[in-house]
Amino acid sequence: VSIAVVLPAAGRGERLGAGVVKALRDLAGEPLLLHAVRGVRAVGAIGPVVVLAPIGLVDELQVLLASYDVVVTAGGEHRQDSVRQGLAALPADVDLVLVHDAARALTPVSVFDAVIDELRAGAEAVVPVLPVADTVKRVAGDRVVETVDRADLRAVQTPQGFSRDLLERAHARGGPAATDDAALVELLGRTVVTVPGSEDAFKVTRPFDLLVAEAVLKARARAH
Ligand code: C5P
Fold first, then answer.
1. Is the shortest distance between the CB of 10 and ligand 1 below 6 Å?
2. Are 184 and 170 in contact (CB under 8 A)?
3. How far does the centroid of ligand 1 lie from the alpha carbon of residue 149, in Å?
4. Are residues 96 and 1 in contact, defined by beta-carbon separation less than 8 angstroms?
5. How much is the pLDDT for 176?
6. Which atom of ligand 1 is least distant from the CA of 205?
7. How far is ligand 1, taken at its centre, from the CA of residue 82, in Å?
């Protein structure tokens, strides 16, 4: 079985603050994207990797990633568009696809392995999840409408794994501005299985997340 990764890295990263795009933000002396690609390449079972770059930065990212055996191509306006471009760039012999946010740059190998194991065991769609720590309420404007039972809620991460056929069908069909790929598969009525995620797989979105990421890297360096 050939397993590929589609790595959307084409976001502008506006929530991180002004300046460079998210993929090139510095984390411990290296661009965030480099950390992400190294993490993916540390997973033995993964073959082809397609990185979706912000339009205008394809050449620059190609140079940055020259030694990592990845294909860099232009992403789209929304994450969903970027993933679709990535699927289109996959070699014909790929059977399983993991879609992984480049912004989850510190995702441990163990999470990739858990998703891959579940796919190999026959699941056609797999997502890593964590319990929700906060109490979650539905609101209308500034008024609380209701409290949602936290016991049934999970925060969903990436890598999300799929049989290639199913993911391509889900993206061909599309849907209303999905924020992850599993949502499109759910719209087809197919079963999505969960595996345990990791706190280290958090998405670098805001400046605070860069501080956490630096701390995680320091802790890992100490552990070695
Ligand atoms: O915006 P969001 O935090 O959901 O982005 C998740 C991932 O999708 C990031 O790695 C980002 O670079 C990527 N993305 C993309 N193309 C877009 C928007 C986001 O590849 N148009």
1. yes
2. yes
3. 29
4. yes
5. 82
6. 3
7. 8
Token pair listed for 198 = 């990791």
Contact 128, 159 (CB under 8 A): yes
Distance 10 CA to ligand 1 centre (A): 6
Distance CA 30, CA 15 (A): 20
Q: 201 CA distance to ligand 1 centroid (A)?
A: 15
Q: Per residue in 65-91, pLDDT tens?
A: 999 999 999 999 999 999 999 999 999
Rounded distance between C-alpha atoms, residue 13 and residue 205, angstroms:
7
Tokens 């399983």 found at = 96
Whether residue 177 has its Cβ less than 6 Å from ligand 1: no
Distance CA 167, CA 8 (A): 15
With a cut of 70, list the residues of the chain below it in pLDDT: 18
| pTM summary value | 0.97
Is any atom of ligand 1 closer than 6 Å to the C-beta of 171?
Answer: no
CA distance 155 to 178: 15
Report how far residue 23's alpha carbon sits from residue 30's, in angstroms, rounded to the nearest whole number: 10
Residue type at 177 in one-letter notation:
A
With a 6 Å cutoff on the Cβ, whether 54 touches ligand 1 is no
Does the beta carbon of 8 lie inside 6 Å of ligand 1? yes
